[in-house]
Specification:
The chain is an all-alpha fold. Helices cover about 75% and strands about 0% of the residues.
Length: about 190
């Protein structure tokens, strides 16, 4: 674990050394848009405007709920890993995270990867899949860039979000199959 922590620390200090106004102008709004799940919830709700994206909505929404429960209710309070700017000497954060002192895993990353994987699995729209993954990568990188998560926090968040939506997709597929079966049985009995 000490070796992994050393790698995490080194990456965080390197990222601080490459901070510049251009990257900050892009990554600060990205990271702030993830506060309280605002961007992810809004984007998932937008899928409701497309009738053909109902499975996408249910998959991404359920994936977000499952992954967030694991991250926010179970792991963060259990592990209580301090934020990088608290433990890495010389590291400063670009955003205030005093309301949530726990770093592992990244909730922002969990949420956006849950959305991206939900869209990947359920949507037929290529642009949604591409946009989802671009936003997921940007969000994950932004959390490192602003100094509030270690790389292992972000990696764990990405895995949890991805798995959450994969489980959600299995549930949605079974629910739709059951619905279609009941609808078919009802039509046959008429």
């Amino acid at each position: 674990m000490a070796y992994i922590q050393q790698i995490d620390d080194s990456i965080m200090l390197f990222l601080q050394s490459i901070r510049n106004p251009v990257l900050s102008a892009v990554l600060l709004p990205v990271t702030n848009s993830g506060n309280h799940g605002i961007i992810v919830i809004a984007l998932i709700l937008l899928t409701l405007f497309f009738k053909s994206e109902r499975k996408t909505f249910f998959t991404a929404a359920l994936g977000l709920i499952l992954a967030s429960l694991v991250t926010l209710v179970f792991l963060k309070p259990l592990i209580m890993r301090p934020r990088p700017y608290v433990t890495v000497e010389g590291l400063t954060a670009l955003v205030d995270m005093s309301r949530d002192p726990n770093s592992f895993p990244s909730g922002h990353t969990t949420a956006v990867f849950a959305m991206a994987m939900g869209w990947q699995l359920a949507s037929d729209r290529r642009w949604m899949k591409i946009f989802g993954w671009i936003l997921a990568v940007l969000m994950a990188f932004s959390r490192l860039y602003v100094g509030v998560h270690f790389p292992t926090d972000v990696l764990a968040g990405a895995i949890i979000g991805t798995v959450g939506s994969f489980i959600a997709w299995q549930i949605v597929l079974r629910a739709y199959a059951l619905y279609e079966k009941r609808k078919s049985e009802k039509n046959e009995s008429i």
